[in-house]
Amino acid sequence: MAGATYLYCVVRSAKRPSTTRVPPGLPGGTTPHVVTAGGSLWLVLSEVPLDRYGPERLETALRDLDWVAGVAVAHEAVVEHFARPKVTSVVPMKMFTMFSSEERAVAEMRSRRREIDGVARRIAGCEEWGVRVTRSAVLKAPQPAPDVRSGTAFLKARKQIRDSARAAIEEAAGAAAAVFDELSPIAKDARRREPPPAGAIPPLLEAAFLVPAGRRARFRGAARRAAKACAAAGAEMTLTGPWPAYNFVQPSAERA
Questions:
Q1: Backbone phi, psi, residue 131, to 5°
Q2: CA–CA distance, 51 with 10 (Å, rounded to integer)
Q3: Measured between alpha carbons, how far is 176 from 135 in angstroms, rounded to an integer?
Q4: 48-to-4, 41, 74, 89, 97 alpha-carbon distances in Å
Q5: Can you give the C-alpha Rg of the chain in angstroms?
Q6: For 204-228, how does the pLDDT look when each residue is reduced to its tens digit (9 = 90+)?
Q7: Is residue 115 within a helix (H) or strand (E), and if so which, with residue range?
Q8: Residues 225, 207, 122, 244: what is their CA dihedral angle, to the nearest 10 degrees?
C-alpha cells in the first residue's frame, strides 16, 4: 500500500529523544519513531497510508470536523510527548506535514537547518499558554419602565440604558486589555491571535504567551488575579496550557 512520511515535530536535543511510551500517532499510521537530521536535530516521523491521508482523500476528510479533531488530538499527543522544556526544544510542525519518503523529510529539514536552529533557540526552555477573554453574557437593554409616559422621559430613559450598556462593554474590554498588559512582561513573547472568521462573535482577547518554564508559577498566579479582575468587570477569562509553542514557530516583526 502506498504511503507517505508524516512529520510531527523537530526536536533539538544533545541525546536521542526517547520513544518509550510514545503515543500511537495518527490513526492508521505506524508508531512514531526518531531519526537524526544531523548534530542535535532529530525528526519524529511515522508512515501513513495515502488512501487515508493523500491529497484527494484529505480534500474530503477535512470537511469532517470530528475526523479532523481526532487527528489533531493524535498529532498533539506525539508532540507533547517530546516537549520537555528542561531537556529538549521542540519545533512543532503543522498538521499534515508530509513527504514522499523519510529521506526527503531529512533532506528538507537539513536544508532549513539555520531556520530551525533559530526557532529552537527562541523557544528553548519555554511553554505556550493560551488566554481567551469573552463577555460574560450578551447585554440586552431592558425596555423603559411602564410609568415613563412623556416622550422626553422615555427618550432619556432609553439613553441611560444605552449609556449603561456601552459602559459595561467598555469596562469588560478594558479588563481584557489589562490582561495582556499584565501577563506580557512575565512571558518571553506574547501574541494576539488572528480574529475569527466574519460572522463569528469575536472574543475581547485571544492571545498566546511564550513562558519560560521557570516562570510558570508566577504566570499562573498573575493569570488567576487577572481572571478575578475580569469577572468583576463582566468578562470571563479562560487559561489553557501548557502547550508546545505552536504560535511562536514563526518570528514576529515586533512584540505584540
A1: -130, 130
A2: 26
A3: 9
A4: 5, 22, 13, 25, 11
A5: 24
A6: 889 999 999 899 999 999 999 999 9
A7: helix 113-123
A8: 90
Q: What does the pLDDT look like over 91-111, one tens digit per residue?
A: 999 999 999 999 999 999 999
Distance of CA 98 to the CA centre of its chain: 21
Contact assessment for residue 165 and residue 177, using Cβ atoms and an 8 Å cutoff: no
User: What percent of the chain is modeled with pLDDT above 70?
Assistant: 80
3-class SS of residue 135: strand
Give the whole-angstrom CA distance, residue 124 versus residue 89.
Answer: 5
State how far the Cα of 113 lies from the Cα of 172, in Å rounded to an integer.
Answer: 45
Q: Which three cell numbers stand for residue 189?
A: 513573547
d(CA 145, CA 136) in angstroms, rounded, equals: 25
Q: What is the pTM of this model?
A: 0.75
- Return residue ranges of the chain for CATH 3.30.70: 126-248
- CATH top-level class of 126-248: alpha beta
Q: Cell 481572571: give the residue.
A: 227
What DSSP string describes 76-89?
HHHHHHH--TTT-E
- Binning pLDDT at 50, 70 and 90, where does residue 256 land? very low
Residue type present at position 122: R
Longest dimension (CA), the chain: 82
Least confident stretch, 62-71, 96-105, 134-143: 134-143
